Amino acid sequence: MPQPELVVLLAQDGSPIGTADKATVHAGRTPLHLAFSCYAFNPADQLLVTRRALGKRTFPGVWTNTCCGHPRPDEPVADAVRRRLSYELRLVPHALTLALPDFRYRASMAGIEENEVCPVYLCRVAAEPAPQPRPGEVAEVFWQSWPDYLAEADRPDAAHSPWTRAQVRELARHGAVERFLADSR
């Protein structure tokens, strides 16, 4: 029998207070827990945009950043980012950089709620090999310039995840992506 995937539960101040089975955490009233988001850029400074698999329990079919996930108990968040990029897309990140350490959000869709402290990472990935999306995780991928992604995610009718919409506003406000792209060349 497979082991349950555990997420790290957090107190309101962000400190760990325990763990819970991921399958039981995302519900109508989700406890605060630790997650991450990652935005991966190729050598041409394009962002890898993904569409969540239609079979995902949380936010199926929405367009979003490159990769999201949850660190395992006692797993450094940067290691979790590497693990999920490899698992979901068969990508290896380079120049992995923490851009928004304290990002936090709450959002719901179809009776499922997200309630996460979600550090945001930026990284580089090689142009080859091309991403190989795992069907149960990612429905589609494409490369897009950062300015185009910003403009699209900011539209009121955008079909993007609520976390990416909030994250791109914060990343833009701080000039984080532009700085990262210049520094990681």
How would you explain this protein's 3D organization?
It contains five helices and twelve strands. It has 185 residues and is of the alpha+beta class. It has helices at residues 22-25, 77-89, 146-154, 162-174, 176-183; strands spanning 6-10, 16-21, 33-34, 36-41, 46-52, 63-64, 67-69, 94-100, 104-109, 112-117, 120-124, 138-145. The strands form four sheets. A four-stranded mixed sheet has the order 7-4-11-8, with helices on both faces. Strands 3-10-9 form a three-stranded mixed sheet, with helices on one face. A three-stranded antiparallel sheet has the order 6-5-12. It has a single domain, classed as Nucleoside Triphosphate Pyrophosphohydrolase (Alpha-Beta Complex), CATH 3.90.79.10. The longest helix has 13 residues, at 77-89. The mean pLDDT is 95.
Strand content: 25-35%
* Contiguous helical run count: 5
Decide which structural class fits the backbone. Answer: alpha+beta
Distance between the termini: 45 Å
- Second CATH tier, the architecture: Alpha-Beta Complex
CATH topology: Nucleoside Triphosphate Pyrophosphohydrolase
